[in-house]
Amino acid sequence: MFVLNNAITAGGESQQTRRTLGWGIDMQDWDTGVLAGNVFIGTDNPAVTNTYSWKLMGHTRDVSINHNVSFNSSSSGETTAKAVLFKEDYDGSIQNVSHHNNWIQNYSSTGEMLIDETTSV
User: Fold this and answer.
1) 43 DSSP assignment
2) CA–CA separation, 95 vs 110, rounded Å?
3) How many CB atoms within 10 Å of residue 39?
4) Is 21 helix (H, G, I), strand (E, B) or coil?
5) From CA 65, how far away is CA 101, in angstroms rounded?
6) How would residue 14 be classed by pLDDT, with cut points 50, 70 and 90?
7) Once rounded to an integer, what is the mean pLDDT over residues 14-23?
């Protein structure tokens, strides 16, 4: 999978499902891929608090995440807001992932910039 040179803005802005979700790109079970040159700009809606720009999870390997911009992934600075989320279900499910030259800026320092929810079995 290659996701290149996109602009993704105001995720969850209008709350079509009446939830607080503002999700970007999910990279789940990718076997070789690139996420590069993308710009993620968050919403101005303060009710949208469960947000991230990109999320890596599942059995994912050989993925390059480079030269992306994540700006203002949360308008409210909520602690549920993340710019980048890595979630490994068990040891070894995420392999050979590079994450370089990405620019991450959130609304306030109360939101988490980068979180690793890796767990061990």
Assistant:
1) -
2) 30
3) 15
4) strand
5) 9
6) confident
7) 86
Task: Say if residues 78 and 48 touch (Cβ distance below 8 Å).
Answer: no
Amino acid at the residue 32: T
- DSSP string across 48-92: --EEEEEEEESSEEEEEEES-EEE-S-SS--TT-EEEEEE-SSTT
Going by their DSSP bridges, the two strands 21-28 and 82-87 should be labelled as unpaired
Q: What is the pTM of this model?
A: 0.80
30: amino acid identity, one letter: W
Token output for 97:
């992932």
* Sign, Cα dihedral of 66, 67, 71, 77: positive
Residue showing tokens 């050989």: 62
Query: SS3 letters for 22-48?
Result: EEEEEEECCEEEEEECCEEECCCCCCC
